[in-house]
Each structure stands twice: as structure tokens, then as C-alpha cells.
Design brief:
12 helices, 314 residues, mainly alpha, globular, three-stranded mixed β-sheet, single chain
Length: 314
């Protein structure tokens, strides 16, 4: 399908205008992006390694968290390396195939992350509202079903988006006022009237984003109300992680909903939000779930002690 789209188009590559045209700002952007990218990779990898290594974290909540960290590794890698590489290039280009792959990856990651966040909210709901049935409901089979569903939703959402646009004719211009391949701007470069298609794509992403966000907010409200009515030590412990979940949800959905649903957003604002979403959010997710979770911090200390003891023995 990708090759067919490329063969029917005169355009074989797209040119990015980039994040900024100021050569004074670009070194600062590069340094910040590099720092947060490396920190994000290290932080999320550490979460995955700790969850896999520590038997005390072999529970539903941390299984889902490890999968979220894996997705955040992908979110960091899809946009940031190319953006940093292009910062000091006068001509920032990406092939037609590369652009389509980037769009596909971004929407898969977004779809998977939405479902995982809903699954994590459901996990907290069960832990707080039905603690006696938690182990029965949040069984390994249920957790695996959540992860499989997340990937199916992400892949289906992305394939549906691309099915309507990948074979569009592109005869020029080929300039994208962005630093990555963004689906709405990609469509606008087609040689046909794409207004209906633009609306459909925006409505699709906007509906999924807003719908998922509403589901999450409603679930958090139910949890908070339940805790206020039935306060207990177990509920308090489960509620301690709820603030971390809410922080991650706001960081993830805030820029996403604004870009797809705000009719008068400017290109500059969209770039700032996209930069925040690509560079800061994956890093902040790992920080929030690590430093605001006492059990995770304790587990990391145990893993480090074990690694040091192994080194001494060897």
C-alpha cells in the first residue's frame, strides 16, 4: 500500500520547516531535547526492568505500568531523534514512506496508551471499590486481555486513519510547517479537495481522545467518592497512586485534545504542544510513577542492592 501511494505521487519526500527558525534557540532546544530523551529512555527502561526483576511487583498494576513505560519508549523514539537531527540541518527532509511510517507509529502509540490508561484506571477502581475481589477480577488473564485489546485498538485506529490518506495524490507543494509528520497537515498537501477527509480524520482522533478522557475522569470521580464514603488503610494505599494516574492523564490528553478539538489553535502553539508531548511527557510519566510511588522506589533500591551483590560475588 505504501509503495502504491508513492508511485501515484510526484512527491517523493517532504520538507519540514522545523520547530524554530532561530539559530540562537536551536542549541538550547537540542540540549533540552537530548537531556529529556536520554532521561526518558533510562527512566522507562528502569521501570520495565524493576517490574520484571522484583517478584513483589508482579501484580496487575505494575504489569500495566511496565507496558505503559514500553509505549513511552516508543513515544520518545518516534519523533525526538529525527527532530534533534534536523535542528542543525538547513534542509529538513523525510521520505514519503518515512512520513507515512511516522504517522502510523504515532497513532498506534496514541491508541495503545489511551487503552492502557483506561485499564490502569479500572485497576484502581477495582482495588479501591472492590478490594476483596481484586485478585479474582484483575487476574493475569484479564491483564493480558487489556494489553492485547490496547494493541488491537491502536493498530485498528491507525490503519483506519491511513487507509483513507495513504493513496492520496501528492503533486506539490511538499512543505510541512512542522518538525514531524502530522496527519492533518499531511492531508492538506494532497492535490484534491480534502476538506471532508480532514474533518473525518480530526473528528476521529478528537472523538477517541475526548471519549477516553471522559471515561477516565468519570472513573476517578467514582473512586474518590467511594474512598470518601469508605475510608480504610487498604483504600488509602490504593488512593496514594491515584494522583499519579491523574497527573499522567492530564499530561497525555491535554495537548492531544487541544490540538484536535480547538478550532483556532495556531501553528506555533501546535508546535509547542507537540514538542511538550513528544519530549517532556514520556519523561514526566516515568518520574511521576517512580517518585510518587513508594513501593516502586523501594523495589528499585532492592534491585540495585541485588545487582551490587552480584557484582561483588562475580
Amino acid at each position: 500500500m505504501l509503495m502504491e501511494g508513492a508511485n501515484h505521487s510526484v512527491v517523493s519526500e517532504f520538507v519540514f520547516l522545523g520547530l524554530t527558525n532561530s539559530w540562537d534557540i536551536q542549541p538550547l532546544v537540542f540540549v533540552l531535547s537530548s537531556m529529556f530523551y536520554v532521561a526518558s529512555i533510562m527512566g522507562n527502561s528502569l521501570i520495565i526492568f524493576t517490574v520484571a526483576s522484583d517478584p513483589q511487583l508482579h501484580s496487575a498494576m505494575y504489569f500495566l505500568l511496565a507496558n505503559l513505560s514500553f509505549i513511552d519508549l516508543g513515544a520518545s523514539t518516534v519523533i525526538s531523534p529525527k527532530m534533534m537531527y534536523d535542528l542543525f540541518r538547513k534542509r529538513k527532509v523525510i521520505s514519503f514512506r518515512g512520513c507515512v511510517i511516522q504517522i502510523f507509529s504515532i497513532h498506534v502509540i496514541g491508541g495503545v496508551e489511551m487503552v492502557l490508561l483506561i485499564a490502569m484506571a479500572f485497576d484502581r477502581f477495582v482495588a479501591i471499590c472492590k478490594p476483596l475481589h481484586y485478585l479474582t477480577i484483575m487476574s493475569p488473564r484479564m491483564c493480558l486481555s487489556f494489553v492485547v485489546t490496547a494493541w488491537l485498538v491502536g493498530l485498528t485506529h491507525s490503519l483506519l486513519q491511513l487507509a483513507f490518506v495513504v493513496n492520496l495524490p501528492f503533486c506539490g507543494p511538499n512543505v510541512l510547517d512542522s518538525f514531524y509528520c502530522d496527519l492533518p497537515r499531511f492531508i492538506k498537501l494532497a492535490c484534491i479537495d480534502t476538506r471532508k477527509l480532514e474533518f473525518m480524520v480530526t473528528a476521529n482522533s478528537g472523538f477517541i481522545s475526548v471519549g477516553s478522557f471522559i471515561i477516565l475522569i468519570v472513573s476517578y470521580i467514582v473512586i474518590i467518592v467511594t474512598v470518601q464514603k469508605h475510608s480504610s488503610s487498604g483504600s488509602s494505599k490504593a488512593l496514594s497512586t491515584l494522583s499519579a494516574h491523574i497527573s499522567v492523564v492530564v499530561l497525555f490528553f491535554g495537548p492531544l485534545i487541544f490540538v484536535y478539538t480547538w478550532p483556532s489553535s495556531t501553528i506555533h502553539l501546535d508546535k509547542v504542544l507537540a514538542f511538550f508531548d513528544a519530549v517532556f511527557t514520556p519523561f514526566l510519566n516515568s518520574v511521576i510513577y517512580t517518585f510518587r510511588n513508594q513501593e516502586m522506589k523501594t523495589a528499585m533500591k532492592r534491585v540495585f542492592r541485588q545487582l551490587l551483590s552480584y557484582r561483588k560475588i562475580s
